[in-house]
Amino acid sequence: MPFAVTYGGRLVGQLTVANILWGSACSATIGYWVDRAVAGRGVMPTAVALATDHCFGAVGLHRIEINIRPENTASLRVVEKLGFRDEGIRLRLLHINGAWADHRSYALTAGEVPDGLLARWQAAQAGAP
Q: Are 55 and 77 in contact (CB under 8 A)?
């Protein structure tokens, strides 16, 4: 499921829900990128929260996983802000730029955000407990 991410009326990124598994897994992975010009403004955490809520609600998935290269500190901040659980390093997970790259794996299940991830993210931004 590809999603365009817009901000101020222009395209600033993209988010994809991929590797959707049904049956006993009911899970998927999320990957994303965002224009550096809008990084740090909460655009991607909001997009990830919206996509996660869509997957848990309308789609009926149980688990979302996000895998990030350890040196990608900006993407690591996205999952940390949203409260995804760090599940450790996955060695040589994806082939990127001609080499197999390690990734840090983060996950969240529907039961961990019964009121929705977007609601939790918005409450955190507002300073609520």
A: no
